[in-house]
Design brief:
MetI-like fold, 2 domains, two-stranded antiparallel ribbon, about 75% helix, MetI-like, transmembrane helix, cell membrane, ABC-type phosphonate transporter activity
């Protein structure tokens, strides 16, 4: 309750305050008991259906343990032949790294353009905003491995279709991540430049991007990390790199060579993770 002056006279009147307790509660506590119970029941039922439709079974996994044991026994010890396995694996790993690098950096211009056009704070109008969002949604919806299959049929086997696949898919993913980062900026500097008569390009260059450069660079490093892993999978469909060697080793039942290639990939992934973490630490991202 709160006492305030009555505007119709000099007396004081008491008015009830709004109940703000519910607004301060965590979101999960705002649900009633029956709502929470219903949500739990629905989630459980969905998982039951998913387990049944996917034939998920620990019993089946245990029944197949002998096959896994045989597979591991054929993979160990790894093939450490320098000429036959190690050196070709290192060369192919370099190609995998270059595919991930080019797929990330060459998608920066298109990602930045779609991010600006697909952000509510920088898009010129709603029509352009929806078009940019639709393009990003399409590029994200098509998996990079599907793009790779398309480009393999167009330009043939090798690393080039893998690079093209990552450029297209990464443009959609990174464009969306960047557009969301742009939408969270402080609108004050942009409004000040707009009031001063600055053009849209000047506002983006001098007010928008300076605020989000750390976030954009952090997301770029994250996508580079993901793309290196993706380039490994793209090799399985003929896009080159060490993924292609792993696929060939599996098809020829050379599981010891396959294990060697996997260990080389592990070293690459650890190195990329350490590099990304080091750069983020330097820039305090």
């Amino acid at each position: 309750m709160k006492t305030i002056p009555d505007t119709r006279g000099t007396t004081l009147r008491t008015v009830p305050l709004r109940n703000t307790t519910s607004a301060l509660q965590p979101p999960i506590r705002r649900f009633g008991g029956w709502q929470l119970a219903t949500a739990i029941v629905v989630i459980v039922l969905l998982h039951v259906v998913a387990i049944r439709e996917t034939d998920f079974s620990f019993v089946t996994l245990l029944d197949g343990r002998q096959g896994m044991i045989n597979f591991l026994s054929e993979a160990f010890p790894p093939n450490l032949s320098w000429e036959d396995t190690l050196w070709p694996g290192i060369e192919a790993t370099g190609i995998t790294l270059w595919i991930g690098l080019l797929g990330t950096t060459l998608s920066i211009p298109t990602s930045a353009l779609l991010a600006v056009l697909g952000s509510r704070t920088t898009s010129p109008n709603r029509f352009v905003y929806q078009i940019a969002r639709s393009i990003m949604s399409f590029l994200r919806a098509v998996p990079d491995i599907v793009f790779a299959l398309v480009f393999v049929t167009a330009v043939g086997l090798g690393p080039f279709p893998g690079v093209l696949a990552l450029i297209f898919h990464n443009t959609g993913v990174m464009g969306k991540l960047w557009s969301e980062a742009i939408e969270e900026i402080d609108p004050g500097p942009s409004e000040a430049l707009k009031t001063a008569g600055a053009s849209r390009g000047q506002i983006v260059a001098n007010a928008t991007f300076p605020q989000v450069v750390p976030q954009l660079f952090g997301l770029l490093l994250y996508r580079f990390d993901v793309n290196v892993r993706s380039s490994l999978v793209l090799g399985l469909v003929g896009a080159g790199g060490i993924g292609l060697l792993i696929n060939q080793a599996i098809k020829s039942f050379q599981f010891d060579s396959m294990l060697t290639y996997i260990l080389i990939v592990l070293v690459l992934i650890i190195a990329v993770d350490l590099f990304s973490a080091g750069v983020r630490k330097k820039l305090a991202l």
